[in-house]
Amino acid sequence: MADVDEEDYVYFGTPIEREEEISSRKRKAIAEPGTLRSLPPWKQEVTDEEGRRRFHGAFTGGYSAGYYNTVGSKEGWTPQTFTSSRKNRAEVKKQNIYSFLDEDDLKDIGGNTLETSMQYDTFGFTAAEFARKKAEEEQKKRPSAIPGPAPDEIVLPASSSIGMRLLMKMGWRQGHSIKDSNAESLSEIRREARKAFMALSSNNAEPDISEKDADGTDEFPDMSIDVLRNSENTPVYVLNPKQDMYGLGYDPFKHAPEFRDSKRLRESKSRETKRSKVHMGSLLSSNSKKYAPGFGIGALEELDAEDEDIYASGFDYEQTEVELEPSKAVSSSSGDRMLQLENKKRGSLLGFKLASDSDYKLERFYPPAIPSNFRPIHKFGAPLDQTLKNYNSVPPPDAPPPEDTNLRLLIEGSAAMVARCGKSIEDLYMEKSKTNPLFLFLKSGAEGYDYYVRKLWENKQKFVDNLKPAEKLTAENRGRILGERPLASTTSRVNDVSVKAREVINTQSSHGDTVTKPISLADLPDSAIKQFKHDPAKQERFELFLKEKYQGGLRASGTRSSTSTSTMSEADRARERLDFEAAAEAIEKGKQTIQISAPSTDHTKDLLGFGEDRFVPSTLIENSETKLEETNVVYPKREQFEWRPSPILCKRFDLIDPYMGKPPPVPRPRSKMDSLIFLPEIFKSSNKEDAKSPIGNSLEASKSGLKEAEAEPSASEADVAPTSPKNVERPVDLYKAIFSDDSDDDEADAGPALNQAPNPVKSSEGANKTLNRLVAGDFLESLGKELGLEVPPDSIPGPSLNANTVSLPEEQKSFKGGDDRDNTLFPKVKETKSKDYGSTVDSSREKKRSHSKHHRRRSRTPDLDLDSGSDSDSHRRHRSRSKKRRDRRDRSRSRDSESSDEAYMNRKERRKKYHSRHHEHKKKDYGDKYSDKKRRS
Amino acid sequence: MASSGWELAVNESGVLKGHEGAVLAVRFNGDGNYCLTCGKDRTLRLWNPHRGIHIKTYKSHAREVRDVHVTTDNAKLVSCGGDRQLFYWDVSSGRVIRKFRGHDSEVNSVKFNEYNAVVVSAGYDRSVRAFDCRSQSTEPIQIIDTFQDSVMSVHLTKTEIIAGCVDGTVRTFDIRMGRELVDQLGHPVNCISLSNDANCVLASCLDSTLRLLDRSTGELLQEYKGHKCKSYKMDCCLTNTDAHVVSGSEDGFIYFWDLVDASIVSSFRAHSSVVTSVSYHPKDVCMLTSSVDGTIKVWRK
Asked: Where are stretches of biased composition, namely Basic and acidic residues (chain A) (predicted)?
């Protein structure tokens, strides 16, 4: 049967079968083993002679050893941890992989291997490996959700070996050599070692030892120094193939690297001799230091003279023993050593000797003798300031530079020197001028003298200006430097202004070339200057203005703003400037008349009187209220703002957050400039609406102010009313900024969209528009409710928006006065509109494009920037601010419209031009005006 | 005036020595039994001023310490100074529990709130910042940066944060109302101090004037002049009875004014150098002064 089976059965592979199949098949197999042959290999079963199934495939060797069809142990699957005995309680058994492996498996793994102890792994080379293995072991021991060894990254290698730890305990630190700094003990050990070695190596060496000891004691102090010096670092570990027979890490030339080369030479020689075996004896005898054969020199042994070359040619032990001549060697070596010692004492390198006399000598200079009457405080002969003041008071006339460029340069240079160093230098130059013709210009009347004087003065001025900021830095000074708004009452006003005025005069006259009118204020009649007697602060400013105008010539806006009170708002400043400008002009005229007809003072008085009359009332009327809060601010002054505590702060203070559930705050302007522009109006509007909105809630207030403002233009687009400019103008921009859709476009689009509403040709864009309109309508309605206005229902948000119908040409005039701003809104747009009157979609696109074009052009000419929608956010932001200023200016202009501001007139004219063009091209945009007119009537 | 003079702490009763260098602030604790000082030597010191005992020194600051405040339960300290951080200390162990960061520059003043849960600090970086002591975060929970200049001094009431600033304002941040009240004084404010009834705020301005403001209306009640205060950070305070106003002077003097009629009741030389800080006992007639000369003096009636 066995023979037959041999052929039939397949011997490898472990079939996996379902149990029921197996059991059924087993029975079958027992019943009729012959049928197995017909079965495929994976269905065949192994049975013993009696038809029992012996091979189970559970393990690699898979025969059940007596325990039939079980695990292979007596207990079977019974858990090992379970013991029924009450006394013999279950212990926590440590399981490792070996408890699951049999001998074969162990053999495969490697089984009972010898392992190195990491305790002596000084350099930790295998520490990482060890740690990993340990971790693996641990992994095996403890039950874990994740089978297999832990990844290497998780396990950190153990770092220090036991030796390392011991050393650390003893005070050694990484990076230092292991050598003890206490060289005495070390030398002690070394001596002992050497003694032992000598005793071992030769019997007749006793006298030598004693001699050496004597020498050695001499040597040790030096050695200890050496040790100290070298104990800083461990030597660099260099990977060299080991070619010698020294102990591991032993380097005979550790402290004498200069001998390494000679050794190498010798080595090569000795090799040659070995090869030839001719001169061996003589060579070795010359190599007389080799008196110490055999073992014995340990790692402790320092390199000493006597045992220098002890292993020099390791292959020649026998010979050296034979050839040794101890007495000779010692004497010569001791001679050598003496030399070395001497060198060491001198502090030079081994094998080198200090020169007895050197050429180099350090030269020493003694400090100069201080005269007995010397006082270590320097007093300046003449104070610089006084001379400077002289220069200040009378500026010398401007002089043309001499033609000779060399001379000019010389003059300029010497002027600068004199200005910096004082009169003494000038005197020195004067001395020189007696001999050197180059310095002739110093004499008055000579060529270039005037120029020199002028240059000197200019340089002095510059010098003074440079000196100024070196004052003590107070809070005010710092504020001024940083361009902060000075606290109005920190310094007494008059002083401040006068100081500033002086400064301004200084700086401006220092730029002598740019001075246009060097006329002093002094020759103006007093009454002429006192134009604003009723208001001293203003009078001061006016005087300052005059000074700048007449003496400075330079009237850069920067200097002006720094000197004039920056507490004023931009618009007021502009207005005041206009006043001043006009007054100054009047004075100018008056002076001219003085110059023409000197005695007729009555006339000038008349004129001035006229001027006074002329300017007093206007300023009085306009500024009377603003003045109060501007200049004569009464301190302390209380202001109130919204402030949002953070919720957590409220919680920690045990208070209820006042802004709980409210929308996020409106960003508050950071700079004072912004607050000057924004806040007053916000608060005004909040005051106005106090009736409607809760008091103190300025957020609400500003918001509703916004809404109101939005409603206004929508309700009265063309009604641009100088009557309520405050509420209309600023917030429109704000609104535009917030509702980021280009509202100009919306306004422009809404019109045609309305018109085309009944148009059968409706595009998707049209649908969008109607949607927008619906939303806008809702918004307007809500606004209307809030403001108590009648807003027509959704379908006609129209009367406010542009209804493009033709209107009468007579109405043009009516816009000019008030509504020029709005009419110039879209000059270009209107052009394009007139082109494609009927088609909506294209025109709206075109409009957008032309819009942006329009903006680009406008940004170049800010004067014309009267109103526009902007596409870019930044532009919008910028505009909203600039517009505010503009609005104020507009207002001021409308008030004193008779003032002769040329720029303003220009602007007006230009605007008119726009107008006419706009009216030429645009025929249908008058509808809104028309409707407005209707509404107004 | 002479009649009320007897109740002023004008007699020197002790000197606390130990600081190396200028002492920048001296503060009584809540019940007035202990005091804390801090100075240029980067330390905080805890004293018993009545017995003249130095109890503990707290070291951790890297720069000078400008202000210190202690909780009502005397368990925690908070200090600030030139190293831009607030140190939150455990009083007994002397360890730093936390360091609050966030200021961009030197911190001038620091205070706990009533529940010791929030620390509010005022800094040279033009901001007042509030830090949460109860969370682990070291970042501020609130930054108030409406100031235009260095904030010199901060005080807290139950519902408000009051801060004096070099931009000439005393700002009151009312947490309950969500309001900021700005009282412009027109002069850089060096230090503010609250009256004991918390109805008035005393502001020391750099024009050598103390100004007393009514807190509810912002009205200027009185001005006190005579001392010198132009460039140093100096403290001012009211006496325990709110009857007098006290301030140091840059010439080493201490000035007492009558609260109502602003007359100088008493002035005497206390230190050889600038008087940096004064602190009045909450109940007794006892005052502490500190100076650049490195000493702290205890004054009694």
From this structure: 259-275, 810-836, 889-898
What rounded mean pLDDT belongs to chain A?
A: 57
- pLDDT above 90 (res B88): yes
pLDDT of residue A434: 72
Residues 882-911, chain A, touching B (beta carbon < 8 A): none
Q: In this structure, which long-range contacts are made by residues A666-675, counting pairs with CB atoms below 8 Å and at least 24 apart in sequence? A: A666/A699, A666/A702, A668/A641, A668/A642, A668/B146, A672/A484, A672/A485, A672/B148, A674/A881
Give phi and psi for A846, each to the nearest 5: -55, -40
Q: pLDDT-derived band of residue B70, with 50, 70 and 90 as boundaries?
A: very high
Strand-pair category, B107-112 with A637-642:
unpaired
Q: B67 forms bridges with which residues in the sheet? A: B80
| Dist CA B154 CA B160 (whole Å) | 10
Partners of residue B161 on adjacent β-strands: B156, B173
Residues β-bridged to residue B14: B298
Nearest CA to CA, how far is A652 from chain B (Å)? 6
Among residues A261, A340, A250, the alpha carbon closest in space to that of A301 is found at: A250
Confidence band for A89, pLDDT divided at 50, 70 and 90 = low
The amino acid that residue B205 corresponds to is C
Contact A638 B184 (CB under 8 A): yes
Instruction: Average the pLDDT over B60-66 and give the result.
Output: 91
pLDDT band at A103 (very low <50, low <70, confident <90, very high): confident
Q: What is the pLDDT, as a whole number, of residue B196?
A: 87
pLDDT at A892: 44
Distance set, CA A524 to CA A427, A456, A516, A560, A790 (Å): 40, 29, 17, 21, 62
| Closest CA in chain B for residue A474 | B231
Largest separation between any pair of C-alpha atoms in chain B: 54
Q: Check residue A743 and give its pLDDT.
A: 42
Chain B: give the shortest CA distance to residue A538, in Å.
20
Cα separation of B49 and A764, whole Å? 85
Residue A845 pLDDT = 44
**Per-residue tokens: B286:** 């006892």
Q: What is d(CA A706, CA A746) in angstroms, rounded to the nearest whole number?
A: 18
Measured CA to CA, the distance from residue A876 to residue A868 in angstroms comes to: 9
> What's the CA gap between B262 and B223, in Å, rounded?
7
User: Is the minimum CB–CB distance between A477 and chain B shorter than 8 Å?
Assistant: no
Chain B residue numbers touching A671 (CB-CB < 8 A): none
- pLDDT at residue B89 greater than cutoff 70: yes
pTM for the model: 0.37
| Residue A543 tokens, joined | 């005087």
Model confidence at A860, pLDDT cuts 50, 70, 90, reads very low
Closest-approach residue (CA) in chain A for B207: A490
Place A177 in a pLDDT band, splitting at 50, 70 and 90. Answer: low
pLDDT band at A615 (very low <50, low <70, confident <90, very high): very low
Nearest CA in chain A to B145: A670
What is the residue type of A168?
M
Tell me the helices (H) and strands (E) count for chain A, helix number first: 34, 1
C-alpha pair distances (Å), A432 with each of A103, A407, A445? 115, 15, 17
Q: Tokens 């189970």 identify what position? A: A56
CB crowding A87-105: b at 16 or more within 10 Å, else e:
eeeeeeeeeeeeeeeeeee
Which residue among B149, B175, B217 sits closest to A649, beta carbon to beta carbon? B175
| Residue B11 near residue B268 (C-beta atoms within 8 A) | no
What was the pLDDT predicted at A11?
A: 63
Q: Amino acid letter at A713?
A: P
The secondary structure element, H or E, covering residue A429 is: helix A423-435
Asked whether residue A888 carries a pLDDT value surpassing 90, the answer given is no
Q: Before A636, cis peptide (omega within 30)? A: yes
